[in-house]
Amino acid sequence: MEFAAFYKEAKDDCLRTVTAVVGNCELAEDLVAEAFSKAWASWAKVVNHPVPRAWIVRTALNARVSWWRRFRHELFVGDWLEGQQPSYEDTFDRFPDDQIMTAIRALPQRQCEVLALRIFLDLDTETTARSLGIAPGTVTAHLARATRALRDCLASNLEQEPLP
Amino acid sequence: VISSDDELYRVVRTRFEPVRMSAGVGEIMAHGRLLQRRRRLAGTAVVGMMATAVAITLFSAGPFLGGPASAPKNIELASSVEIEDDGDVVLTIRQLVDPHELRTELSKAGVPAMVEFKELSPGAARRCEDVGQPSIPQLSEVISAGSPEPGSDSWVFIIRPALMPDDTTLHLVVFAQPDSNARQTQAKLVKGEPIPCS
To answer: For an interface test with B, which of A42, A80, A121 has the most B Cβ atoms less than 10 Å from its Cβ?
Structure first.
């Protein structure tokens, strides 16, 4: 598989997964962009990973310092810089609605990761377990709890605002 | 009513549909190339890396922007311009000296450019005045910005002259404060000759 085709096919799902876990679209994009850049630099290895998209998400979530942020926002945004760093607290249009994000962010971290990998990458239990370094039984338990909690949270709001 | 787990997941996927990557694959690959280069530099002798390079040597008369004549002589490579096998140009800036010479070397490497180094006083704005000269959108494809090389204050930029539209010039302005290593670079790709930063 060519990197460009992989990027085109996987980028949005990886971003949604990381966004769900970190709770911020802009930070998530920085992390995912950095992870894809690392994948490009090590493509011979990553392309042979059983699930390259899981590699991207794991790498993004492991990232501690986002050089990419400076690259996009401080140095070359396509025009002159404003000389100011945007805040990760900035709101912007791509952010999922508060109802969903609040429900997901209320989950414990590990449950959130398991749920996001299932929803956006459609990973099965075994692959999720390998990606997160936990036992398959733990994945099953986390997913069940997370799904139940998410359903309960959303159900309480459905009467006020019907989902599409 | 959400009747099943799959239905619940579908609802969440629908709500996340607007979340999309804005970065193009070109930007990702450009940054990846920089990461790859850093890795090579870490594992390869610098002498070997420079063997095929077209390099310039700018001998610093001072630590910053030419500095006072009485500053300690500091003989080292202040900047370098290297041409890689694929035609990419690697610009490494270690010290902010002699932008005109750097421009000449970039030109020799096939990169029409204007380079300016600006010394800022504390609190001064780190940007140039808007002079109404629009930047061409291909900028992010033409140049990827660097961060300090591991263990140094050098900044690396990879420039792809093959992607510069005809009759365009790359305008780089590096801002720095004399009392710190903080730097910020502004870049613009313009038609014709850039208007100097003011």
So the answer is: A80
